[in-house]
Every structure is written in C-alpha cells, then in structure tokens.
C-alpha cells in the first residue's frame, strides 16, 4: 500500500506565513501528499490557492464542513486521512472537532484552542474519537532538542537545578506594527487569539520546550504579564518564575515587543553536574558544559556518532550541512505520517515524543491561564488543579506498546 | 499548463548521500516532479528505489540509455523534461551527452565531467543541443552568498584586495576511511573521479564560490597538491595562491584529510573599504566589517529589509527561522525549473546566476588542471589558455535578453 | 606632586582570589602605589605576603586598627591615602568604618556590608566623614558596559521594555565544593556572609549592572530563593522578577550551583527600537540589534570611532587587542585614583559612574533584603521603603560640579 | 634579594602604541621595575615621558648610548639589568648591540632587526655576549596557544597535516592611512622598516606562531607579496604556501590592507585525528575538533583542570574572568624576569618557550627574505640555507639544564 499519507489542509492560503511552512514540511520527505484543501473562506482565494498548490478543482473548498463531508464520502483509497489545521487560533477548536468527529486524524498548529475550557473540551472529543491528534510544537522537533532531552532524562548531568527559557521577538514592538498586518491583527485580537496574546502565541512554545527537555511538568507559576504597547487588549510581554516537579526552579520570558529581535528562543538547563544551552537561531548546535571538562558543542549530523541513535534518525544530512526550521517542522510531519500508517495498518503506535499530544495542549493552556491569574493576583498559582479539570494528564494518546 | 517541471534522475539510488538531497531539494517548493528514474545499474536496486520514491514501475530503469530512448518516445505532456545527473563523476559525461543529444535539459552534479578534455567536449554538445545545462554548485545558492555577491559587485566595499577560501573536511583523514565506504571509494579512484580527488571534488566548489562572489575569474594559480594518506592515487589535500582579473590575490585551500572537520567551507573577501566573511556551517549569517563602523551581521530572512530584494526572493522564512543546506539546494531546483518553464513557453531565459553553466564547469576543470600542473612544476600557471581551448568563455548559455 | 595615589590594603594575603586581582588592577596603569598592608590577621602570613608584595617590614601589619593608627601618624607625603578593603564580607563594615573615621578614603569590595542595617550604618559614617567611598562593582567598569549605558540612556533605542540578567556560576554545585575551600566556606557561612549567600555575593553584581546600564533603580522585586544543596544555611540559587522606575520589567537570575558554569554573567536590554546584549565572558563585544538594520557588534578599541569618547578613554589598546577582567578592575582603580587626586587638590570631583557609591551599596543590600522577604512571602516587595530608612537615595557622594 | 628585575627602556615615549603596552605588561605582576629610560631622542619629550612614568630625572636620557654608559657605571644593586627595546625597527640592531656589548640583557620588540644580514650579525653579538636575548612575540605568550602547542606536540591529535594562519589588519587599507600617523609612516618606509613592510611587521608573528605551536620549522616557502596601495615602497599584503619539517603543508596570509579588519590573527592546525583553531580576538578559547567526538572549547582559567599545568601557571584568574593582550604580554615579562633572576643567581635558566630567542629571530627574517625572493622568482625557496649562514639553528640560547 502507498507509503504516502493523504492530507487535507484547513487554512494556509497564499500569502500567509505558516501555511507554506506546513506544505514544504509535508513535501520534504515524500511521506505526505496534499490531496484536499480549504485554504480560505473566500472562494476565489481558496480556488487560486488550490490551483497553485496543484490540487484538482473538485478537492478545493471554501467551507471546511463541506470539505469534511465530501471527503468522508470518498472511497477509502483516495480519501484524505488527516486534517492539518493551519488557521488563526479561534478556528482550531471547531475545525479540529469537526474533523475528529468525522473520523479524521488532526495535526494542528498550536495552541490547541483559544482557552483552557476549549482545550479541555477538545480533549474529550479527541478521547472519544479514537483518532490521532497532534500539535506542531516545532521547536521540540529539532534533533538537538531531542539530544538535550536524552542527556537530561538519562541523568548524565545529574538532577535539574534551574531552567531559563526566553522567547524574544520584536515584530510587535511598535504601535504601528499591527497596522496592515494580518498576522499581527489576529494575534492581538481577543476574538481570534483568546485570553492571551504573547503568552498563548509563543509562551506556550517556551513552556513546551521546558517540559519536553526536562521530562517534568511545570507545576506552579508566578507571572508578570503586561501590555507594553498602549491600546492593545492582550499581553504582548511577560515573564514568570516557575517550579518543576522535582523542585527545580526556572524563569520563562516571552515577549513580542523586544525591538530588533527576530525569533530568539533559547533555553539553558542547569543541572548539578553540567549545563546545556540551545538557541533556536543556531539549532544544529547544542552547547554542553560539564564540571571539570572542556565545553562541548554537539553538532547535528547523521554521522555524528556521539548523538543518540534516535536523534540521528531525525537528521537528513551529514555534519556541516545545516538543517533548519523547515526540516524540524518536517520531522513532525514524518512522525505524524508514521503514526497514521500505524493506525491505518492496525499496528500499535510508536511513542513519537516530538509531536505534542492533547495533554500537552491542556498543560500549555493551563500554563497560560495560571500565568494570567498569577499576574493579576501577584502570587504563585499551582497548575495541577487545572489539569484535573479535564481528567488525568497521565494518559497519553500516543502510547508505546 | 502545469507549473511543475518533470524530472528524470540518473543515479541516486537508496543509500547514497547526494541522491536524497537532490530529491528533497526538488520536492521542497513543489515546482519539480520526479517522473522517471534510473537509480542504479542493478535492476533490483533500481526497482526498489523507484518503488520507494513512488514511481510507477514502467518509468523505472536500470539502463540510462533505455530511459532516454523510452522517455523520448512519450508524449509531450508527460515526458520527462530534464535529467538530473547524480552519478559518480565518470558517468557525468556520457549521461549528460546522451540526454542533451536526445533533447533533454540536464542538471548535473559537479564536476561537469572528469577531466578538462571531457568538459570541453561536453561544452560543444551543450552548445549544439540548444538545451539547458546546469551545474549544482550548491554553496552559491545560499541567499547570503548572493548578498555577498551583491555587496562586492556593487562596489560598496571598494575594490577587492584579497580573498581567502578554505574547504576543510575530515572524512578521508585516515587510511581506513576508504574501506567499506562507497562514497570514499569512488572519490579516491582515478577511474571514477578523473585526474584529481580533493581538488575536483571540493576544490571546484571553492573555486566557483570565489568567482561567484567576486564576479571575477581566477586567471592564474600556483598550487601545492599532495596525497597525504599514503597509498592513494589522487590528491586528498592541497592549497593554491591565485590571482583575479583585477589583480587581487587569494588563497584557496581544499582538504579531505583534516581530522575532526565536517564540511567547513568558509570565505573571506577583503576589499579596500570593508571585508566580508561567510561560513557554510552557519549559512544564514554574513559578517561585514566596514572601516569606521561597528561590525555587522546580516541575517537571512524574507523580512530582512536590508537584504537585496533578489536575495529575499530566495528565502522562505522570516529572520530567525533558519534555512540550511537543503533549502540552498532547492534554490537551484527552483531556478532550473523556472528556466525550463521559460524554455517550454518560448520565453527568453532569465539569467539565474546561482545555477552554474557549462562555462563555469570548464573554468572549474581548467582550475583543477592548472593546479595539478602548477603543483608538478612548482610554478605559476595561467588559466586563460585552457579556457580558449574550448572557445570563448564569454558566451554564457543562460543569457538575459 | 606625585601622580600616584598611595594605597593601604586590608585583606588579600597570598593564596586568596580577589587580593591579587586588586593588586594587579592597582598596578596596571601606574597610578596607585601599594604602601601599606594588613594582609592577614596571622602575623607570619601577613609578613610573608608583605615581603612578596615588596613592602618594607614596618608597613606590614596583622591588625588593621594598628595599621590605621600607625599610618595616621605618618607625615602627609608618605601616608597611605586610601584603604582597599579586600576581606570576607563580615569585615567590610568594621574596616571601612575605622578607615573613614580616621580620615582615609575607602575603596571596598562588594557588598558594602553584610546586611541592610549595616550598610545603612556605613552610609551615615561615609556621609559624616567627608571621605570618598567606592565599591568595586567590577562589571560596570567594562568599557562596553559603559557604551551600553550611553546608548540606553541617550534613548537611541527608545524606552526600555524588558531586561534580562543572569549570573550563573557552578563552583558550589556539589555538596563537597565547600570542603577545603576558604572561598567557599566563608561564602556559605552566615557569620561571614550575612543573611544571603548567592544573592549577596553575585546577585548584587547583577542588580548593579541593571541599574548602571538603564540608569533606573529597581523599585520592586518578586523573588524565589532556594538552597539547592542540602545542608547549607544560605541561598545558593535564586531568581526574581523586577520592575524599573519607568515601568519596564525584568528578570534576574543568580546561581552558584549551575554545574559546569564559570562566570557566566550576561544581560539583555530590550527597548522599543532595539536590543542590547553583553556577556561578561566576551566583554569586549556589545551586540546591538536594531529594527530594520543588520545586527551590529560594537568592538572595544581606542580606535573604534563609533564608541562614545568617554568609553574609548577607558580603553588601553586598539581594536582586536582584547582587554579583560583585570583591565576592567583597573578602570575602577584609575577612576578612584583620579577622585583621590581631585580631593587631594581641593578640586571638585568628577562624576565617575563606574565606581559604585554608598547609595548603590544601600540599594544593593535593599535588593537582597527585598528578595529574601519576597521569597518568604511569595509576594512582590517594594524596595523604596528600604532606601528611605537611610535617608534619600538621590544624594550621591560623588557629584559633578 | 629583590625579586623585582630592573629594566631600562629605549623608545616608547608618550603617545606611541607599543611603549605603554610594554610598561603595563611589565608592571602587571610586580616582577619588573622601570628604573631608567631613553624614551625619545627629543630631550623635552624624553623628560616629560620620564616624569609621567615616575622616573627620577637623572635616569631619563635622550641618547641611548649615554644611558648605557651611565647605567653601566652604576653600582650593582641599582643598575638596570636589562634593556627593553621598543623603538622602530631600524633601531633594534644598534640599541641591542650596544646593550649586549655593555653586558645588559635585551628584551626586544620584533622583528629582531631590519634584514636577514642584520639579524645574523646580531646573533653573533648575542652569542659572544653571554647575555640573555628575548623577542616579544606576544601571540605565543597567550596561555591557550601554549595549550595548542602541548596538544600538537604531545601527538594526541596525530601528525600535523595542514596549517592555515592568517593575519589580517585594515589600518593601512587606504592611501591616506599613512598621512599623519607616525606608526604608519615608519612601517611603510624602507629606511625604518627594512626590506619588507607587512611581512616583516606581522608576517613574522604568523610565522612564529606556526613554529611555536607545531614545534616544527618552516623549511620552504612559495610567496606572492604585493604593494596593494599604489605609491608605497614595501609590501602591504601577501600570502605564501609553505612546508614544515615533517612534510605537512600550510598557507600563511599577512595583510594590512583588508578594509575593516582590526587585528585578526587566527590559526588552524589540522592533524590526522583532530584539528585546532585559535583566534587572537577571542584568545581565551581554543577550539578542538576530534574525530568522532563533540567539538570542544578549551577555556582559559587557573581552575580549568583539563589544561596542562604549565598553561594554568600562566594564568591569573579563574575561568570566565577573561585575560587578554596585556596579560599575554605580561607573560613575556614575567618569563624574562625569571630568566634574569636565574642568570643573576648563577642558576641555570629554564627553557621558557614563549620568549622568542635569537634563533627564532633569524628564522623569522629568513622567512621574510625567502618570501621576497620567492615572490620575485615565482618559485619555491628553501629556507634552511639562510639559517646556515649564521651558524646552526639548533643551538638555543635559553637551554634547560
């Protein structure tokens, strides 16, 4: 049977940012085929996008519900198998729910939904559907982030002491930055983004990175969010102190108003015997400082024998031939394709860590909610109660057999 | 008509290094479709490769001549339009000639052929064919290399004074490195590689990078090649002094026996008013030092407004979302696809600099020949006479109208 | 009259860390002469130290009070003019007070004293004495830190939005690190260090750096201190959220238990129009990212014409001849020597920012106190009330006329 | 007896570049005392310099011969012990000869003299004198350069294959750069500099660094020197291929016309099992790439236990407290002071590698001569014959007992 997995896409029409990224990521490894799309609610834009992306006219839609209905009616061999949700945040929930309820797997851009309540609702739908649900937390899909995870979780550096993660962008630094930018507009509009701006948009990436690398959940937060540019309705900057399960402490900063910054996401994980540093803008290096040793720089490469084997399996080129953001994103598509093939074949599903599951989505929104409440009360807020609202966080939809 | 350009591939079966790179690069932007392939001379390996790459069995071949004959017989709308030549060096000439003579465009891995004589012969075939011929000098396809070219050629840094280029690899550093490695074996075998090992394999990349950025040809060379690992039959290490058309001087080092090195290609271009530095292992940065100013680091990004517009057009992501080696390679495929579409439509062809033309191929092999002769004679060797053997180098097959 | 200023030193005997640094810093520019010393309370160690440092036997003491009495009795032309206090923290107060009350200027290692109460008491003594008092906050004395200050305070980057400062060391990461180390012992002993370990020792450096660069005081703090290594009596790790006078926010992390870290102090100052980054471990570079511009790296050098003139005046070498930690420390001695000469000559005193004054000392200890209280209460703590306990912080002892 | 060694200085009056560096370097560790000086041939400038540097008037001279005569007549306990020669190049020979013949040790700025003939003459004088002679090749005095030497010479990286050294400056990049600059004027004037400009001034540093690290002499050279800025009489730019004793190859580039460059000296040493990289502008790091291992960065620090013990002995601060150019220079003074004390005490002299001896001076000027001749003849020139002109190079004046 065909190795390729068939994808329908909702959102991501011409001219957007994240849609093309998803399409390139899906195409790179030849394991996913775009077979249907609802790229825009505007029929003309939907059509011209579909044409450009090489789809036949009868599989291009301007109404996602119609797309789901029509595709459901197709025969098994040609029907789309999963829906990539690439819309602004406020469409994540309805599109995901509709797809899941029709029996399609879902791979969604983050955040999973606009609010904690929405994502808890989504979690129930995911669990009831028996379908796969994945979140594209891109940064966890970089191979050297997985290497960091391996090193921390194998305890080779001893217990985690302190984590520092910063995600600094500058594209909303000035009042005028929201004028005439579709990207900027919906991200600063509570109707599209939900209850948080910056913390939901990029703070959740930072939150996920901490949990992914340390293998520990963030259990409490003390945050200070602000709207630095007057006139906005959501946070555009903030920072938080946090605690991990083992008692380790951390700081998380997320800001979109740091003039001159690009996409400066970096993390340091300090342990008793050594410290790790990773910067997204040079993602193929992992700096490791160990007591009594020369500093080390781990370099990505299928031939870097000192990397964990599963890390090398996520790489495509030898050391010194840099892979970047699109390749990280492609890892998510490759992983999700593997999961869909497993499901298709009735095999059990590998635990592919880098694709976020719905539980990670819940914890992300719980973190946002906790940060907002903490900031309002100037106090520490525990996060575990939020998780319990939606059932146990210990269940993971993607289980290893 | 279809935007996608149809590609047949010769070489590049499963398990090789450069074949998958070509396929990912071709797939990334959705402008090229793999429709036929002769991935191996071994029928079984050819077949399983074709299957893996999603080709129908009747378009998978184990004899490139048969592939060319059969594809020629296909109707216009489905027939492959160009041949990607991804074989070891000694097949570059026969495959390219066969394809061109049958009217197919050719996009070839470098070097164009094994020897200067071969590439001069190929040049005649290219010129007679009326077909497009392109060489995949990947490194010139990095956006910030084009930015360097723009800055140097616009004279904003004043006249070029001195160029230093080094290409250091370590994968052949030890005698045992050729055991059991297909890659290593053919590269150190004169029957497959031609008259040079390291200088033909990676020295030509360095040579092309110098000419691409400065816009000047290397006119004379004084080289010192050696076989550092005893028992080999070709150079595995060497360096050269060189001169550019304007009298500027340079050094070029190429080595595959530098223990611990990955793919360390770097270039510095020193001009009267400033100096540029680019390193392939962090390709999305271009360091610029100008007299009396703070050092600058130009960063890749579709939104980096200070980059030349045509440089930004070669990028896919905003600043801080790194693109790498595969994306650079994809630029070549995107460029070549644009050239094929132009040709297809009878439009005149844009001068897309990053795809090397046959004249660049001749100059590359002339450089190798000059280096070998210089090294043997311990003397400077002018390169212009070599070019003239094959007709004027001023003709470029890809001309702007 | 002699350009050289005469120094007596208390503490800093052979084998310590900070004593030799002070002596090299004092010697470097030939403006300070060591004329007397009480290097140890152990007479033998005091004597051998004095001999090694080239002092005549009659100016070597093992009792600081005797040194102050004896030096007071000397004639004007030869008597020491200031006392460098280089002892463990708990001696800072008594030595400084004794010196000031005897009419000697004081240049003290930080912190000014062990507790907020002590430093407020010291402040009164300083004010009553009419003598100069300086604190060696080394990091503010790096030329490019002054350049950062100039750029932020001139508003060329617009209003400050967010500051992030981290000071991570690893030398106390393991329980055994305090065994057999004099340094480590007194720093983890409340009787010698005061009420805080890490925050007093290095957190105060980070605090001072923020205020020095931004020109704003930290007005409120929300901290989370911990003793990461069981069995210690003081904090060895902590982090804080803070607010600046203009409403900007920040995070401050200070830790001595980050395995593998050396002396990793770094700061980022994000403003509306650009962001600055400085790392102490490469102190001769200042990274500047401005909206719409290539990233810039300001490089130290007397010939770096783009640096502020007063920054260049703090440098000794041309660009590319790195100055480091000792040179930064020497800037403090050069500045303090200039202040002493002014005082000596009855001239008014230049406002030399890099030498911390007693008010900076008070704010530093107020920050430590605030952090401790905040951490205990899990709440924000305003710092301004602490300042007022000791009189106005607006008075600066070193005023420009 | 006094630990301090007494120095007289010739050259280095106020306003120059290298004089203050020598004085700070001499002062830093308190092992050298400036007791006499002939800072200028202009009596007024000599006097005011002497006053500024704190010398009594009767030990300040404007005639170096008079200084040598007068100091010779002083009693043993106060007389200067060595002469630091800090003049423009053409004074190196006469001042050194006069000092040596009067029985004073000499520590000279490089090059040892203006021409090969001069330095061979000087060598005879050194050998006849029984005095110590040292050359301040500063860059070899950086601790991590010694670490590189240790690693290469201990063979832990296997045999050296290829060396690349580049010394790029920009301060003479434009015609106007020699106007009004004393530094620039004498360096481009054959009467002051000798037969070479750039290669003598900085090429000799690069040459020395190669030999110091590899422990091998450069035995043959093929060079290409040029005068890039029209109107000058000496080379201001050049490059060379070279060979080492073991057959390894290298490239050496030295240029003073690279616009925007500061003092960019960097070296790579590629061996069979690994490669080393050191850059003078971040001198406290040594990058090490070894086959099959993560890249390593060795960091300077008295507490960096992985550094060779003798390397740590050349450091003053713990890891993360950067030492720089002045400290490297101070290492030379500290070493030379130790040598003088040994000589003074009749003890035999330690082999302190970092201070260049006269044989290194000869090899340096032989390299310059060979490069000039090679460049004129476009041919390889062996260097060993030049050495033999002045006797065996195997003799070293500074021998270990």
TrEMBL record, chains A, B, C, D:
<dbReference type="InterPro" id="IPR055170">
    <property type="entry name" value="GFO_IDH_MocA-like_dom"/>
</dbReference>
<protein>
    <submittedName>
        <fullName>Gfo/Idh/MocA family oxidoreductase</fullName>
    </submittedName>
</protein>
<dbReference type="Pfam" id="PF22725">
    <property type="entry name" value="GFO_IDH_MocA_C3"/>
</dbReference>
<dbReference type="Pfam" id="PF01408">
    <property type="entry name" value="GFO_IDH_MocA"/>
</dbReference>
<dbReference type="InterPro" id="IPR036291">
    <property type="entry name" value="NAD(P)-bd_dom_sf"/>
</dbReference>
<feature type="domain" description="Gfo/Idh/MocA-like oxidoreductase N-terminal">
    <location>
        <begin position="6"/>
        <end position="135"/>
    </location>
</feature>
<dbReference type="InterPro" id="IPR000683">
    <property type="entry name" value="Gfo/Idh/MocA-like_OxRdtase_N"/>
</dbReference>
<dbReference type="InterPro" id="IPR051317">
    <property type="entry name" value="Gfo/Idh/MocA_oxidoreduct"/>
</dbReference>
<feature type="domain" description="GFO/IDH/MocA-like oxidoreductase">
    <location>
        <begin position="146"/>
        <end position="276"/>
    </location>
</feature>
């Amino acid at each position: 049977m065909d190795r390729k997995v068939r994808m329908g896409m909702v959102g991501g029409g011409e001219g957007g940012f994240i849609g093309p990224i998803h399409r390139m990521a899906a195409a790179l490894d030849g394991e996913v085929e775009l077979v249907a799309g609802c790229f825009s609610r505007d029929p003309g834009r939907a059509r011209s996008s579909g044409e450009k992306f090489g789809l036949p006219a009868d599989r291009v839609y301007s109404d996602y519900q119609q797309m789901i209905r029509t595709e459901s009616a197709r025969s098994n061999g040609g029907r789309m198998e999963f829906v990539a949700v690439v819309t602004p945040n406020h469409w994540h929930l309805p599109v995901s729910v509709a797809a899941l309820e029709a029996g399609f797997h879902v791979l969604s851009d983050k955040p999973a939904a606009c609010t904690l309540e929405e994502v808890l609702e989504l979690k129930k739908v995911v669990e009831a559907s028996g379908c796969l649900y994945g979140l594209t937390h891109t940064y966890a899909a970089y191979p050297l982030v997985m290497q960091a995870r391996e090193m921390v979780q194998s305890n080779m550096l001893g217990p985690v002491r302190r984590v520092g993660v910063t995600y600094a962008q500058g594209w909303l630094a000035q009042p005028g930055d929201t004028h005439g930018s579709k990207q900027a507009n919906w991200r600063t509009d509570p109707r599209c983004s939900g209850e948080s701006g910056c913390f939901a948009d990029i703070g959740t990436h930072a939150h996920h990175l901490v949990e992914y690398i340390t293998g520990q959940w963030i259990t409490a937060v003390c945050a200070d969010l602000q709207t630095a540019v007057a006139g906005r309705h959501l946070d555009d900057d903030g920072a938080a102190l946090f605690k991990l399960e083992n008692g380790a402490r951390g700081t998380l900063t997320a800001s979109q108003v740091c003039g001159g910054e690009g996409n400066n996401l970096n993390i340091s994980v300090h342990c008793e015997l050594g410290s790790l540093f990773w910067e997204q803008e040079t993602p193929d290096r992992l700096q490791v400082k160990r007591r009594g040793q020369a500093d080390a720089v781990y370099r990505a490469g299928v031939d870097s024998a000192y990397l964990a084997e599963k890390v090398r399996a996520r790489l495509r080129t030898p050391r010194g031939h840099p892979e970047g953001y699109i390749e990280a994103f492609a890892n998510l598509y490759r992983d999700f394709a593997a999961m869909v093939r497993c499901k298709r074949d009735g095999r059990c599903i590998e635990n592919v860590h880098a694709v976020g599951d719905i539980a990670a989505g819940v914890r992300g929104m719980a973190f946002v909610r906790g940060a907002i409440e903490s900031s309002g009360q100037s106090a520490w807020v525990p996060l575990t109660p939020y998780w319990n609202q939606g059932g146990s966080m210990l269940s993971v939809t993607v289980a290893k057999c």
